[in-house]
Amino acid sequence: MQRALILLGLLLSVGLRADVCALPGTIDFFPLNGSSLGICDNNSLTVEGGNYVLCSPCGPAVQLQGASSDLFSSSLAAALSNLSVYTIQMDVSATYGGSNPYPTMELFHADEPGYGSVLIMETYSEGEVDFWDNLGFGSILADVNLSMGTCVNISMVSDGQALYLYFNGELVGGPVACNTTLPALDSVGFSACCDEPATVADFSNIYVSSQVQGAPVVPPAGCAPSPMPTATMTPSPSPTATPTPTPACQTCSNGLAPIYQGILPNSSTDEPWASVNLDHTTGTTKTIGYKGCFLTCFSMIDPNHETPAELNTLFTKDGDINSVGSLWNYQPAANLIGFNCSSLPVTGVDAENLISGNVCLPNTYVVVGLSPSHYVLVTGEEYDHATQDCRFTIDDPAGSRNYTYLDQYTDGSRTIANVEIFKVR
Where are the domains of the chain? Predict the structure, then answer.
């Protein structure tokens, strides 16, 4: 999606930057209120494509609408590149959300060349805020409301080992352990994009630091703008990398009971739905017992406690199961039972980091897709004294194997192909 870009680097050409005085680690501070950048001096600024950025409350501030405009800075991206400790803070006020009671938008994104967005913060129409690292595989879903017309200070923070999310100085999400080091970035943007084109949001007091800063930054009284060279922005040096000790294993379990697609463990007895054909298929190779492992994982997390047979009927009616019996339209299927679902094609250590960063989160479930084709529900993580290693516990729809740990698959017959993250809507 092409955005009209407002280059913050060009705005620096006015030659002034707000001085935040004694705050160490400051990379940059953009008031966006006319006091230093001059962005509102003429009341409006035409951006590419004929869209406008206007002065408005919450600062005053810069106003962005939908996917049509973006505050974008390549120089700020250079300064954030390769940092593992950082704070990205902003004041945001959503003034219009179209048909939604809460704004739905991507507030922030940091992009790696050739990859796309690696660090994202977005809001959902149900009032949730999601801050996630697409490379370190850490995700925070906070059930906090970004209400219309209310100015909120938001801080995205990494302390080098975990991610944190603050609203008005209050910790609302985290810590979520993950690899927090940012890659080399080519762009950083603040926006009101992308799902609801009518969304309007005001941004002000964007503050970026190479140190942890959860509380809202308030420049001390008397801090006047000071002259600053603007030809280049020198990135702050990254902290010297030091070996991170292996963290202790998380100990958690979601407590969900296993449901089986066919044969029960240590038994020759089938579940009653084992012979039910998926969708409108026919034949013994297209039954729930034969290839309904993904469907059965849905049944395990379903808050309505519907059986695989009942979900088969529901998803068939919705068109989520195709003619060969595959639950291919899994995102609408997840929505039907109250979840948002994202699928990430990750393998090896990346997959393990993604699982570890999500499996212990509240209102979050992790389903792992294995190759050759099989799905299991990851139920928790624990320390195994015998192997002196962390192990993921699972509920396996294939009861005949009687597996209870993910590595019983990955140490032998299968590899991880993708990880599905289900978050309660």
Answer: 5-218, 252-424
